[in-house]
TrEMBL record:
This is (S)-2-hydroxy-acid oxidase. It is found in: Peroxisome. Signal peptide: none annotated. It catalyses: glycolate + O2 = glyoxylate + H2O2. GO terms for molecular function: (S)-2-hydroxy-acid oxidase activity; FMN binding. It comes from Salix purpurea (Purple osier willow). InterPro entries: Aldolase_TIM, Alpha-hydoxy_acid_DH_FMN, FMN-dep_DH, FMN_HAD, FMN_hydac_DH_AS. Its EC number is 1.1.3.15. Its cofactor is FMN. Keywords: Flavoprotein, FMN, Glycolate pathway, Oxidoreductase, Peroxisome, Photorespiration.
Length: 368
């Protein structure tokens, strides 16, 4: 794997190594997959305005997220069923995140439990939560995450029903028989079985609460003191409601373009959400990041950090823990270089003036 020079190269290695059903589950988006392509393409419509002759001999990429100090604003998004990619699955991802001194969000639909992930050693970890119809199960999951030392809840809010992922329907996607959704083990939640279409879509329809609303965000705050990040916000209206309803932070996400097709890319939705939040809570970006330049663009548009999903899965499939470590290191190195070449020594120096987007009105350069 020494010859790998960028994050994108892991995708083809994963495609060759993984069974088609598994690769397609990780790689595909909803319906026409327009948003899937747009999540990447939109970054190319943002250009840099680098500042020169600034002393960039020392660069500090460290930041704090919900009060936790991390080495860089690059974190790991929740992705389901990682043991389909590699036998060590979420264990490997947790160790790689900890080694990089950054945050990992563990999926509710993980193939390793919160307790198992905690057993890998120290690290700052958040728990992604789907609110299920059975609220007693939700309370149990949150309690277990707390006991296992998880520091926040990332509440996924864009999935009252699973998006139409046609690759999963064609492949009749189901969890390989040797794996289970470990957080749900022993909770009598039925099985993710083979069906005529996507087994996951059928399972989600049975278990996930379609009546979920803002009052449930309030309810969650009554059962836990952990901060709650609302994941799946794409509009100013919902950003304001998230703040009003006590969210500790917002993750701008379109669920990896796997839910509603023809929503904007997350990088295009980001600025609207940031402006609506008015600095009252941090806003993070999830989706489409493959380069350090992408990280910088998100920060310039007001993000407090970014999350990566598929790059973790593909590198995990290719090379296990070492692959995930390398992805985090490559993104870190590229981001540091972008900062240096843009004339920024710390995250607070990255500003909107460092970029121009194709949706900006023509404007006069700021007077110094």
């Amino acid at each position: 794997m020494d010859q790998i020079t960028n994050v994108m190269e892991y995708k083809e290695i994963a495609r060759q190594k993984l069974p088609k059903m598994v690769y397609d589950y990780y790689a595909s988006g909803a319906e026409d997959q327009w948003t899937l392509k747009e999540n990447r393409n939109a970054f190319s419509r943002i250009l840099f305005r680098p500042r020169i002759l600034i002393d960039v001999s020392k660069i500090d990429m460290s930041t704090t997220v919900l009060g936790f100090k991390i080495s860089m604003p690059i974190m790991i998004a929740p992705t389901a069923m990682q043991k389909m990619a590699h036998p060590e699955g979420e264990y490997a991802t947790a160790r790689a995140a900890s080694a990089a001194d950054t945050i990992m969000i563990l999926s509710s639909w993980a193939t390793s439990s919160v307790e198992e992930v905690a057993s890998t050693g120290p690290g700052i970890r958040f728990f992604q939560l789907y609110v299920l119809k059975d609220r007693n199960v939700v309370v149990q999951l949150v309690r277990r995450a707390e006991r296992a030392g998880f520091k926040a809840i990332a509440l996924t809010v864009d999935t009252p029903r699973l998006g139409r992922r046609e690759a999963d329907i064609k492949n009749r996607f189901t969890l390989p028989p040797h794996l289970t959704l470990k957080n749900y083990e022993g909770l009598d939640l039925g099985k993710l079985d083979k069906t005529d279409g996507s087994g996951l879509a059928s399972y989600a329809a049975e278990q996930v609460d379609q009546s979920l609303s803002w009052k449930d965000v309030k309810w969650l705050q009554t059962i836990t003191s952990l901060p709650i990040l609302v994941k799946g916000v794409l509009t100013a209206e919902d950003a304001r409601l998230a703040v009003q309803n006590g969210a500790a932070g917002i993750i701008v996400s379109n669920h990896g373009a796997r839910q509603l097709d023809y929503v904007p890319s997350t990088i295009m939705a980001l600025e609207e959400v940031v402006k609506a939040a008015q600095g009252r809570v941090p806003v993070f970006l999830d989706g489409g990041v493959r380069r350090g330049t992408d990280v910088f663009k998100a920060m310039a548009l007001g993000a407090s950090g970014i999350f990566i999903g598929r790059p973790v899965l593909f590198s995990l499939a290719a090379d296990g823990e070492a692959g995930v470590r390398k992805v985090l290191q490559m993104l870190r190195d590229e981001f540091e270089l972008t900062m240096a070449l843009s004339g920024c020594r710390s995250l607070k120096e990255i500003s909107r003036h460092h970029i121009v987007t194709d949706w900006d009105a023509p404007r006069v350069a700021p007077r110094l």
